Amino acid sequence: MRVGDPPTIVGHECQRCGRCAFPPDPYGCERCGAGVDELDEIELAAAGVIHAIATVHRHHHARPETPFTVATIVLDDGIALKAVLTGDVSAAAIGSRVRGVAVPWETADDGTEVVDLRFEVADIGRGASG
Ligand SMILES: [Zn+2]
Fold it and tell me: Which of 37, 45, 60, 123 has the smallest count of CB within 10 Å of its CB?
């Protein structure tokens, strides 16, 4: 992820077959077997549509605190990913447009502020673009 407004997601595109992936395949293209040297870094817009949604009431980590809402999001670039939703999740439903937001997560030992990529509903009130 690159923090900006809106943030972008860093994935890759295979030079040989054109497959785009996120997260990047660490050993090469999963479709055609091209090596990592044949993968180009690409930036994907953190915007898309909710494909599936669920509220998590119990899980094995302390954070994020339950309950929280997780969604499978199909990015405008065609790649699907899972992410935690933030903001007014009562407006979130299958088909809702969402956009990425960088949420403060923790401060690393070296003082670096670490953020988490979450998504918020972008079409509250209808007609809003984003
Ligand atoms: Zn490939």
Answer: 60
